[in-house]
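Board notes (copied after class):
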Amino acid sequence: MKPRNKFHKKTFHTYEYFLLGTSVIIFQLLFIQHLLYSNHHDTFKASIQSQKLQRNNPLRILHIVTSVNEYETIKEDNDDIQEREDRLLQKLIPILQTSIHSFLDIPNWSVDVYLILGYPLSSDRNNLIRQTLPPNVGLEIWEDAIPFYYTKEDEHTEETVVEPQYASLARQHRFVIKDKLNHYDFFSAWEDDMMITSGHIQNFLEMSQEIENMKKEVMKEDLESVDLVYGALTEYQINQLIPGFIRVEVVENELLNKVEKTHEMVIPPGPSVVADGNLDPTICCQTKSYSQMEGKNDNLHRDQIQLWETDVKAMGMRKLPGPLGWVSLLPRSFLTFRSYWSGDGGEYGNNNKRPQGFDPKYFAQQAGFMATKEKILFLDSVCRGGFLPPFRHFYWEGHSGLRPHNVEFWSGGFQLFGRCKMQRIISLDPKRFSRQLLYHASNNKQRTLDEKRFIKANDLLGQLRTVRDRCKNKFKETQIKE
């Protein structure tokens, strides 16, 4: 019995040593794999993003459109006679057609559409939408998507009532993105009157890649304490940068002269606006022949392209490394690195400060956003409370994002460029600048807002160049390299 027991004991130890040796080998292999992954992870991501910029590589796009009303009142006189506009037929469908056909003009791009509607849709209208889209475009529709909310009837009772939360329809696209995240490379989510083209997406991807390339030369020092407006940034600051957009309208001829007479420019457009080129109005705002939209904007002039939601007074200037060069910074809730403000030379008086926060005159609401899958994941990791559902973080105070947040928070940009701390940049290159203008196709702000709010987009480009030139003169002694 002893030899047998001894034999079993020896066999056990041999087996134990074998397992131990195998474990060590596996651990070493995993460790080596980890090192290789760590060293090349960023390069791999950059390579994948770079490949998707090329036309020969497929890009899977999910284009999400949110629509609150199927019809809307556009006129009401003293006799309470209302004129109703078929918003779905005259706005949503033509704009959607323009966007989708533009996307499909790029070889190897594929696109599906997801509509989020605040109303039920009849089968006839459902079929109408499907018939207007190319057969290779997928379509999903979330009807009657307005969320419901439990709320107290009044502060003196414990009874609760269920009511629709109309302002939170703009939140619903986040659930769609979460559900579809692993099926697409790129997400484009907008309100139903925003016209998005392939030029917007191409420019966004190119600028995003150039931002990513800036990480090859990062600044180790925290630039919050450095009084410079050029040079390398920290990796944290680079991660905050994102190409931005400004909404514009095509100002009607009868209003054009009126707007010109009421607007005064403290900072004039520089002479370089002619030498460096002007914006191209057809990129943002010219509809195609297949669109049913009234007024094809066939004979556009750049002076007709005007904005109302920001001003040079709220914008800063900075020279970024690489091809991006001189860019303007759109306002947000706070600043994390230095830029030359358009009023640093006392243009607005010594007591005036740079506008910040969410002032509607300066913030530049986008009415939507676009991002790669990788960027969506990054935003979900850095945004306070998360960018995607479930919205259970204590930041949401148990309301799942339903209150007090509204359309300006979810799609306008208050979360993305406020809570998420992203900093939008606008290029001074006229071709890129033209691709950062978004056509608000309802074209109705010009009839409801003060004319003094409106600025020619080409004038803004010229003003930004003036600010750039003043910045270069101020820092001439530091020899800013062009």
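Comment from the instructor: Confidence is low (pLDDT under 50) at residues 1-20, 26-52. The first strand starts at residue 59 and ends at 67.
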